[in-house]
Write a structure and sequence with these properties.
The protein has ten helices and ten strands. With 272 residues, it is α/β, with parallel strands linked by helices. It has two domains: 42 residues; 192 residues, Alpha-Beta Barrel (TIM Barrel), CATH 3.20.20. The strands form three sheets. Strands 1, 2, 3, 6, 7 and 10 form a six-stranded parallel beta sheet that branches. Strands 4-5 form a two-stranded parallel sheet. It has a two-stranded antiparallel ribbon with strand order 8-9. Helix 4 links the parallel strand 1 and strand 2. Helix 1 runs antiparallel to helix 2 and helix 7 packs parallel to helix 8.
Length: 272
C-alpha cells in the first residue's frame, strides 16, 4: 500500500519571546554591563546569571507552564462549550497496545490525538495509517524520545523535530500542527524551533502517570478528579506504559474512562 501524499509544511510562524525570556535576556545584558563598568561586581553578576539559569531550568521542568511560550493546556472555549474533552496518547504507535486502544475508542465513537515518536512511526507504518483511517489525529512527539531532549541545542532540536515531522507526514499525508515534548520537559530554545516548524506546543490539563503507577484505580482517579469539558487528558500507548499483572495498566483505565465520559455527556475530540 502506497503511503499518502504529504500535505504542505505548515506556515512558519514568527517567534515572539515570552516576557520570561525577555527578562532573562535583559538580566544577562545588565550583568555584563555592570561588570564592564565595575569589574569588582563580577561575583554578584555570576550569581545573578546562575540564579536565572536555575529559574529557567525549573520552569522547563513544569510541563504545563506558559512562561517560556504558548502552551495548549485546555481545549478552546468553543469546544469546551460543546461538552468536548480530548484524549491524548503519547509514545506510540505500539503494536502491543495501540490496536487495542483503537478498538476501545471505536466502541465509543471517540476520536483521539496521538503524539507519536518518529522512529515508532517508521517501525510501524501500517499501524500508523490505520490510526488515521479510523479518524484519529497524529501529532509530533519528537523523533527518538530522548531523555536528554530538554538539553539539546538549537540545531539538534531542529533536526529531531523536523525528522519526526517528515516521517509523520510521509505516512499519514498530514503535517503535524502540534508538538509535545518528551516527558513534557523543555528549554527556552524549544519555542523558536517550534515557530520555525509551524508547530504549537501542547501539554495537558491532567495526567494519570500511567508510565509509573501500577494501580489502575489511582490512575483513573487522577484523570477523573474534577473532570470537566475542555480538559485534555494524557495516557500512553507506547512501550513506556506501566505493566501490572502482566498487562498494561491502560487496559484497565481506558474503558472506565470512556464510560465516565458517556455518563457525563462528554464527547472526545482531537485537540485541533
Amino acid at each position: 500500500m502506497n503511503a499518502p501524499t504529504p500535505t504542505p509544511m505548515p506556515t512558519t510562524a514568527t517567534w515572539r519571546p515570552s516576557a520570561t525570556v525577555w527578562a532573562s535576556v535583559a538580566l544577562h545584558g545588565a550583568t555584563a554591563a555592570a561588570v564592564v563598568v565595575q569589574p569588582a561586581l563580577w561575583p554578584w553578576a555570576m550569581s545573578a546569571v546562575a540564579a536565572n539559569h536555575v529559574g529557567l531550568t525549573a520552569v522547563g521542568l513544569w510541563p504545563r507552564s506558559h512562561l517560556l511560550g504558548p502552551n495548549i493546556t485546555r481545549l478552546p472555549a468553543a469546544l469546551a462549550s460543546e461538552g468536548k474533552v480530548a484524549l491524548t496518547f503519547d509514545d506510540g504507535p505500539n503494536p502491543a497496545i495501540t490496536p487495542w486502544v483503537l478498538d476501545q475508542l471505536d466502541l465509543h465513537g471517540a476520536k483521539a490525538t496521538f503524539f507519536c515518536v518518529g522512529e515508532q512511526v517508521r517501525a510501524h507504518p501500517a499501524l500508523t495509517r490505520e490510526m488515521v483511517r479510523r479518524g484519529h489525529v497524529i501529532e509530533n512527539h519528537s523523533d527518538r524520545h530522548s531523555h536528554a531532549f530538554s538539553t539539546f541545542g538549537l540545531a539538534r532540536l531542529r533536526r529531531d523535530i523536523e525528522a519526526a515531522q517528515s516521517t509523520i507526514a510521509e505516512h499519514t499525508g498530514r503535517m503535524p500542527l502540534l508538538f509535545r515534548a518528551p516527558a513534557g520537559l523543555r528549554s527556552p530554545l524549544l519555542e523558536p524551533v517550534l515557530a520555525r516548524c509551524g508547530l504549537q506546543l501542547a501539554s495537558w490539563t491532567r495526567r494519570g502517570f500511567d508510565t509509573v503507577e501500577q494501580d489502575a484505580k489511582k490512575v483513573f482517579k487522577r484523570l477523573d478528579h474534577k473532570l470537566r469539558a475542555g480538559d485534555i487528558l494524557l495516557l500512553h500507548d507506547g512501550a513506556s506504559a506501566a505493566i501490572a499483572n502482566n498487562r498494561p495498566v491502560i487496559f484497565d483505565v481506558l474503558p472506565r474512562l470512556l464510560e465516565r465520559f458517556d455518563e457525563r455527556g462528554l464527547r472526545v475530540t482531537p485537540i485541533i
